[in-house]
TrEMBL record:
It comes from Pseudosulfitobacter pseudonitzschiae. It holds the Pfam family LysR_substrate. It comes from the Bacteria. Keywords: DNA-binding, Transcription, Transcription regulation. This is LysR family transcriptional regulator.
Length: 300
């Protein structure tokens, strides 16, 4: 027998509130109705969901395993209801973008604001998640445009690659600030801020330092370039990051210098091949491409 939505809502409410009475208040139901729904759900599932102790309902191990799926299902239903409401009100022509973090703080907020100034009344949603999740969302049509790290982890997507030359960032009072170009020799015995521990950028840097026989010391790691910059500003050391976050004028006392030999960061703009492109999506893709162009290397 298919599970009923009301039963899942009751489970979630009891899980979060810890009692039948509080769950009933939240759902605007009677306590007997909540008790019956919970009992029916346990019967359908074939296992108990809560330990009953003096009116308090403590989740069983099975309930803890089930909770994540229930939460995701209710959230998905909420998104469906929201989308249906947008379609009903005629406001479903907005855009949804997602990025893995590199462009989420010092690039896309500005780009979105400038785009909306040119296209008033266009609602835009920005999500931040892993490249893999963004690719899945884009392939299934849940996201209009994704901006992720290369390589693209999902087949069947339209992709435009933007190659950027990474630079070295430091505090403006750092001893390396007087140099025109930073080289591997400059990094020996310096404390570094790495990216995610196994990021493609750090792999390039590690290989480069290994080939010239110089040590490399990572003091800390961050998932985001922008956070690495904050750590540099706080005196955490040096970092090699993308030019967008490195060159942002934030007034934080951080400066950048070219780094040689070349270390590449590749951002890929993706969209679905199977879902028709609305005109507004194509306009946003063109706008993103124009906005990112000053930071990219010439094609070829």
């Amino acid at each position: 027998m298919p599970l009923k939505l009301r039963h899942l809502e009751v489970f979630n409410a009891v899980f979060e509130t810890g009692s039948i009475s509080n769950a009933a208040l939240r759902l605007n139901l009677t306590q007997p109705a909540v008790s019956i729904a919970l009992g029916n759900l346990e019967e359908e599932l074939g296992f108990r969901l809560f330990h009953r102790k003096r009116g308090f309902f403590a989740p069983t191990g099975e309930a803890l395993q089930l909770r994540g799926e229930v939460t995701q299902g209710l959230m998905a239903l909420g998104r469906i209801e929201k989308r249906a409401d947008e379609i009903r009100r005629g406001s479903a022509r907005g855009l949804s973008l997602a990025t893995n973090g590199a462009l989420s703080m010092n690039f896309l907020p500005r780009v979105i604001t400038e785009f909306q100034a040119l296209h008033p009344g266009t609602p835009i949603e920005l999500r931040v998640h892993s490249s893999r999740q963004i690719a899945d969302w884009t392939a299934s049509g849940q996201i209009d445009i994704g901006l992720i790290d290369s390589p693209v982890p999902v087949a069947g997507l339209k992709a435009s690659v933007f190659a950027m030359e990474c630079v070295c960032i430091m505090r403006q009072d750092d001893e390396l600030a007087s140099r025109d170009v930073i080289t591997p020799a400059c990094l020996a015995d310096r404390e570094m801020i790495g990216i995610n521990g196994d990021h493609a950028l750090d792999r390039q840097l590690n290989q480069m330092m290994f080939e010239v026989g110089l040590p490399l010391h990572f003091r800390a790691f961050s998932y985001y370039y922008a956070i690495a910059r904050n750590m540099v500003a706080a005196g955490g050391g040096l970092a090699i990051i993308d030019p967008i976050n490195a060159k942002a004028d934030l007034g934080d006392g951080v400066i950048w210098r070219p780094f040689a030999p070349l270390i590449l960061h590749e951002t890929v703009m993706i969209s679905s091949r199977d879902h028709p492109a609305a005109e507004i999506r194509e306009q946003m893709q063109d706008f993103v491409q124009q906005s990112i162009a000053p930071f990219t290397l010439p094609a070829g």
